[in-house]
Amino acid sequence: MDAQERYDYWLEIAEYDFVTAQAMLDSKRWLYVVFMCQQAIEKHVKGLYTLYVNDEVPRTHNVRALVSRFESELQTPVPEEKMELFDELSAYYLNNRYPDFMAKLSAQIKKDEAERIFSQTKEAFEWLRTLKP
Q: What is the CB neighbour count within 10 angstroms for residue 72?
């Protein structure tokens, strides 16, 4: 599989995750809205990583760390507000090995927060499309 095929693979599953985030928003499952937003952005960034770095994607959920590996190849630096969103989303990665953490996080995510994250993710997702070389 070449870099373009790997990118297409990652983008396809990122788009699926974003549609799932919308479905979770519609069904008022706030925790899963933010988790699926995190997954969508992470996978989209992993797709871009394959294009810019042309290497196997590291096993990390830290979106900022992934972007930092190819940011120097971009025509303009990543705006700080995008990096802040990436940091916030990375904090929403759910590891199902820690159910106590999931319960605590679930109690903290309310409708307004989920809607804000979804809206910012939608804008960032479209912005990420502009980074494809």
A: 8
Domain count of the fold of the chain = 1
Residue 71 · residue 59 · CB < 8 Å: no
Domain holding 119, by residue range, is 3-129
Place of tokens 């705006």: 79
Looking up tokens 């995510």, which residue turns up? Answer: 109
Residue pair 121/35 in contact (Cβ under 8 Å)? The answer is no
Q: What are the pLDDT digits (tens) for 57-81?
A: 999 999 999 999 999 999 999 999 9
Question: What CATH number should be reported for the domain holding residue 73?
Answer: 1.20.120.330
CA distances from 68 to 61, 77, 109, 119 (A): 13, 10, 28, 23
User: What are the pLDDT digits (tens) for 96-125?
Assistant: 555 565 666 667 789 999 999 999 999 999
